[in-house]
């Protein structure tokens, strides 16, 4: 049996994160789960224990509350007895129409998808630099690669997050800390339920497994499913004069 790794999962009830955690549970890793919904969290924690995780502890927390972060992270690392991987998965799509009408609604989307991860990552990065090891794996999105009218508030938060991760990697990779940016295309989860064409979206189990494998390989960045790398390269290169007239 491989040595169990010490893994912190923030937003552990995310459908994508749960599928990644199943890979780690099967491997016998130690898991510390953070999520805001106690009922969902209890179900996920019990399932991961059954699947073989060597240690599972969970805590309920709203990750929008930045004041909680330092103590929450310190407690998690104490409970795990160290930290090998921190996996940040929490996020909200938000209501684009509402965000267009009300800047406070827009700010809430930016807060959960950008400010909250930045707060967590700033603490975690400094911890990992001190120990000269660790992986910070963070779910951003292809939505951050180009702003579209259907979800540009969410997309701009993810764009900011991807840029933050790129700069953080540039700072701390040389200290022995891996920063992995994960950019999923559309995935069949509660976040996309009811969207047009959602039945064709990627399977969260396949996405979760691809993420686990990218973390094992210490990748800097992945698009998942992989074809989104090519799709987004094409989309990024459409001239703005044409892109502004599209309905996406
Ligand atoms: N699904 C896609 O097509 C897609 C594509 C690209 C990127 N992503 C990203 O993938 C990540 C996971 O999303 P998913 O698709 O797995 O959807 P999901 O199942 O809806 O997961 C999102 C998770 O974030 C949690 N969350 C939101 N705000 C939180 C807060 N303030 N504190 C704690 N937890 C909070 C939610 O908790 P509750 O259950 O309590 O609401 C939920 O567990 C997100 O970062 C998302 O932006 C998703």
The H-level CATH homologous superfamily, spelled out, is: NAD(P)-binding Rossmann-like Domain
Largest sheet: 7 strands, parallel
What's the domain count? Answer: 1
Sheet/helix structural class:
alpha/beta
Low-confidence parts: none
Share of helix among residues?
40-55%
The ligands bound in this entry are: NADP nicotinamide-adenine-dinucleotide phosphate
Form type: globular
Tally of strands: 7
The CATH architecture name reads 3-Layer(aba) Sandwich
Strand arrangement, major sheet: 3-2-1-4-5-6-7
Q: What is the helix/strand order?
A: EHEHEHEHHEHEHEHH
First-last Cα distance: 48 Å
Average pLDDT over all residues: 97
CATH fold-level assignment: Rossmann fold
For the record, the CATH class is Alpha Beta
Number of DSSP helical runs: 9
Strand content: 5-15%
Compute the CA-based radius of gyration: 18 Å
Detailed description of the structure:
Belongs to the short-chain dehydrogenases/reductases (SDR) family. The protein has 248 residues and is α/β, with parallel strands linked by helices. It has one domain (6-243): NAD(P)-binding Rossmann-like Domain (Rossmann fold, 3-Layer(aba) Sandwich). Helices cover 49% and strands 15% of the residues. The chain has helices at 15-27, 38-50, 69-80, 96-101, 103-131, 152-172, 204-216, 228-237, 240-243, and strands at residues 6-10, 30-35, 55-60, 85-88, 135-139, 178-184, 221-224. It has a seven-stranded parallel beta sheet, sandwiched between helices. α6 (152-172) links the parallel β5 (135-139) and β6 (178-184). The longest helix is centred in the middle third of the chain and has 29 residues, at 103-131. The model has no long low-confidence stretch (mean pLDDT 97). Bound molecules: NADP nicotinamide-adenine-dinucleotide phosphate. Residues 11, 13-16, 35-37, 40, 62-64, 89-92, 112, 139, 141, 184, 186-187, 189-192 line the site of NADP nicotinamide-adenine-dinucleotide phosphate.
């Amino acid at each position: 049996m491989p040595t169990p790794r010490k893994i912190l999962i923030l937003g552990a009830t995310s459908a994508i994160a749960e599928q990644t955690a199943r890979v780690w549970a099967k491997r016998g890793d130690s898991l510390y789960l953070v999520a805001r919904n106690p009922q969902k969290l209890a179900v996920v924690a019990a399932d991961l224990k059954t699947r073989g995780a060597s240690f599972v502890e969970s805590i309920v927390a709203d990750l929008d509350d930045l004041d909680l972060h330092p103590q929450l992270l310190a407690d998690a690392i104490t409970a795990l007895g160290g930290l090998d991987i921190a996996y940040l998965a929490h996020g909200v799509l938000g209501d684009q129409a509402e965000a267009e009408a009300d800047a406070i609604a827009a700010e809430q989307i930016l807060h959960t998808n950008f400010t909250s991860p930045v707060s967590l990552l700033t603490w975690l990065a400094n911890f990992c630099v001190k120990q000269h090891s660790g992986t910070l794996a963070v779910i951003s999105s292809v939505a951050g690669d180009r702003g579209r009218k259907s979800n540009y508030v969410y997309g701009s938060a993810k764009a900011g997050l991807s840029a933050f991760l790129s700069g953080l990697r540039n700072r701390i990779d040389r200290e022995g800390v891996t920063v992995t940016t994960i950019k999923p295309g559309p995935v069949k989860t509660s976040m996309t339920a009811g969207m047009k064409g959602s039945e064709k979206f990627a399977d969260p189990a396949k996405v979760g497994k691809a993420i686990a494998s990218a973390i094992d390989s210490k990748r800097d960045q992945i698009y998942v499913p992989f074809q989104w790398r090519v799709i987004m390269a094409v989309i990024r290169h459409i001239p703005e004069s044409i892109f502004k007239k599209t309905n996406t």
